[in-house]
Amino acid sequence: MSAERSDVDAAPDAGLLILPDAPADEAAALARGEAVAWREPLTIRTYEAGEPSAYPMYLDRRVYQGSSGTVYPLPFTESVADEPTMRDWDAVHLENEFVRLVVLPELGGRIHVGYDKTTGHDFFYRNNVIKPALVGLAGPWISGGVEFNWPQHHRPATFLPVDTTIERDPDGTVTVWCHDHEPFARMSAQHGVRLRPGSSVVELAVRLHNRTDERQTFLWWANVAARVHDDYQSFFPEDVRYVADHARRALTAFPEADRPYYGVDYPALAAERPGADRIDWYRNIPVPTSYMIVDSEQDFFGGYDHAAGAGFVHWAERRVSPGKKQWTWGNAPFGHAWDAQLTDGDGPYVELMAGVYTDNQPDFSWILPGETKVFTQYWYPIPAIGPVHQATPDAAVHVERGARLAAAFATTRRQMRAVARVRVGDRVVAEHTVDVAPGAPVRIDADLGGDHGHDVAVELLSHAGRVLVRWTPTVVDDAEPWVAEEPPLPEQIESVEELYLTGLHLSQYRHPTRSPTAYWTAALERDAGDVRTNLALADRDYRSGRYGRALERVERALARLTRRNANPVDAEAFHLKGLILRRLGRTVDAEQAFGKAGWDGTWAAAAGFALAQSLAGRGRDRAALRVLDSLDGVVGHDTRRIALRTVILRRQGAHAQADELLRAALDVDPLDAVLRVLAGRPIAHDAGLRIDVALDLRRAGAVDEALAELAEAAASPVHAGGNHLPIALYLAAAILDEVGRAAEAAEARARAQAADATRAFPSGLDALDALEAALHAEPDDARAHALIGMLLYAHGRRRRAAAHWDRAAELGLVDAVLLRNAALAATNVAHDDARAWSLYARAVSAAPADARVRYEQDQLAARLGHGSAERLARLRPVEALVLTRDDFTIEYIGLLVAEGDAESAFRILVSRAFHPWEGGEGRVIAAWDATLAALGMPPADPPASLGEARSDYVAPAARREDGVTDYFATSLPELLLFARETDEPEE
């Protein structure tokens, strides 16, 4: 066993993470110069995340990372253990002669360890503990290593498992593939962590596949943590002159900040302490701060530890990977307190994040139905060369300029008899032949004898003359970039086009507090036939299950679009019409629409697949194959087409051809779930994944195979991603009814009604259709009413949701979740606070030991103006339950102080550990200050057990003085549990 760590002095009680030695076979391969990978559990001291809430969290108005904090259908986790345990985590280890990596499949497939064997340096921050804080989209999140964030930031599945396999190539390359279907749209992502023999480069090969029928939005940020201190410096390309905050709401010069940023007046600090405005140094940033570079044309960035003489480079093609970002909690007590929430002894870190198809947050791109986006990112450690001024995947160079120029090179492979060279114009002024290898830098200097402007070049060439890296001075326009502005309100916008585009921006960027609907509605008030706006609203209606209204809108758009031109330049309207008609059961009409959409190259792949799938689903296999033949080799790679062709070939008896097709496809996509099932290979025991496979098989007409997968889904264990058992059974019932097996369908519905529905949060149109079918078959199915209510509420159809919840209660379903949901709808939608209060009282009676429902009841009491004495009297008898939640405890302390019992409040504060949550900072300190004041005690810094420290700076306010939420807010102190809503449009 080996600690393999020399640059970090962990605290004595931190529990140094020990990495196992390679097994004998892998050790022998290492000795031969190969890269190796093996699976072996890693014992890590772990603070376990609490049980996820049994209540669905409708946080669509929650501001998170500048966009929507919607978490449904994921269960929300609200607590973390105060004491650690030793836990064995599934781990995949990768190693070659230069680097050592650890990937944790149970935590989203993140890289947990990145260790440079040549320098003994952890180039990625190694956290010796798993210590989550409540900063993730669904609650828990850990620092350290590399987190791969998609389809938004932070990764929704960051605390969920991924399916994993090890791929070994004949040349000794190893790749650890990790795969999941993200929990919202169910798109597929595979990322492969790869090491090659003889290379210090960590490659990340990524395949993002939109396996849905709809256009989706996404972003990708690889979030790298680096251990920092006063001598740590982040470096970015030399053409970076400015950096921007989230949504480009604020701007400052870089690396010397030339204006206040995040409330810090950097020029004023620099006047007192020269260099304090350099925000490329961690030591100079005193508050939680993000900055994203603006408009670089370069491909690299990274970080350098001057004390350790080591660092790392990230490289990716700028054409797809423009995003380069730093985040820090800040080098001040406030930030250090957050660091302590995330580690025991490994100290502060910064995040150096690389964005692909994105350069800001939020900044979402589109991915078409069936489209696969493929890209690669590279990281590698660097030795003591200094911050990098130019880099490629082969080498990096640091250049010190002056009358005498000095340069240091680091390479990612051994380069024998390489040439280091300095040129001025065509004249070589210095040249050395050198042997260079990872971890062993080489240097060159030259007396330039004066200012040679931009004619100087520093380069390293291989022995064969290939340029490994070349640096030349950077010339950029220093003009200040644009800054985002809040869009006007709809009534302030003149043109229909601008109304449409503003709504599109709000939708694409998932804006949390302003709806696109108001802009699109205003556009149609001015021009009822506007094609783009009608299609945008039709798409929105379709995704919420309002099929009839969606069809009306899309036909209105097509009426204008085809009035003079039957073959429009963009056929998206036909594709959308096909999707709607298919949901309405008008299969032949849908096929006609898909066929027309296929005339447009943009939609040929999506519409062609939908058409082929529909034909296969009703047994027209030869027609389906003809459609597939027209797509293969013409449009992009789509594993759905391969799976569909396999199903059809097997029905036709061409088993050998189908098997060969599968084998070749799995060589490319080794973890594609549908392909693996068709090939008889195992997939993860994940009910959501099984349901996805079943639905694909059903649409291809493979009914028995689909039902088998749904049976597997119903038997799969429940995990933090939710409980899919009831919906798997309702889906099975719908399929059985469709094929005339009514008795079996009734049995499946009976099982669904009796199943444990804890954390069963259905989502998506297939679940909606299945629940509608269940209620058509059995209108008095209380469980189906309760479940469809949750789905509809999440889809914004809240009055309809409330009606279903009311019906479930009328049918005798006594369930705290149901009653609480109905209470939310009563106050938020019906504005009936009295009824909401009554429903919360019934929910508390149904689950008296549930702290969440009591907390929500108390929050409603505060909104309704209940006095502190009344609220306190209600809570004192259940104080032990109150103290199980941080947020509830803080409210309780406030009530104690208000009612003259500050002594009890103080006792709680000094005897209990708190875990702050991102967006809730400052609440426990405010409670501490209020308690001390009530006791007549002098102000004092809070104890470490409160989990927070004071900030010397005031962060940008999320709400303006008039109470309106700042359009550019990146977080809010509350989760907006209660928010009055206007009437939704008619169904």
UniProtKB/TrEMBL annotation:
Residues 70-382 form the DUF5107 domain. This is DUF5107 domain-containing protein. It comes from Microbacterium gilvum. The lineage of its organism: Bacteria, Bacillati, Actinomycetota, Actinomycetes, Micrococcales. SUPFAM superfamilies: TPR-like. Pfam families: DUF5107. It comes from the Bacteria.
